[in-house]
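Protein in question reproduced for absentees:

***
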Amino acid sequence: MWCAAAALVAVAVSAAPQDAAVAPKPPTKETLGKPVPQPIPYSHKTHLALGLQCQQCHTIPDPGFSATFPKEEACMACHQTIKAESPAIQKLAEFHKNEKPVPWERIYRVPDYVWFSHDLHHKEAKIACETCHGPVAERDVLAKEKPTSMASCMTCHAEMQAANECDVCHDHR
């Protein structure tokens, strides 16, 4: 079943009253299919073929609103010896040595005014990562494959028979 990006992301205009001095940010136009350049090349296809699972690198810490980027020390556990001569791995090793995170570019994002929980969607509703992020295990380079519009989220909620009222994603302050 194709469920639009509702399980992981949503974009919408807030239903909550706005302070007259603070105008809401307009939604940005989505660009689907364009690969997102990363500071270090990374093939999900290669790594998942080795048996890695999404949540080994992208944990969902409490309170569960967002998934993390991989920790450099986790990558270096293998890459101290595997492809250590590669310029990309040497760059990764430098980030690790300096205790700085790799500045990965986000591909999916929700506005601050949208309440979204990876914990609720993935852990509780048991929605697979690829439902919203596409067939990542088949990709060497990632791009945004599924829309994150309010309409796509509401379509998914309807298909999954999940709540679809405004306050499900808005005004959870």
Remarks:
- Residues 1-27 have pLDDT under 50 and may be disordered.
- Helices lie at 44-49, 54-57, 72-79, 87-97, 118-124, 129-133, 150-159, 166-169.
- The chain is about 30% helix and 0% strand.
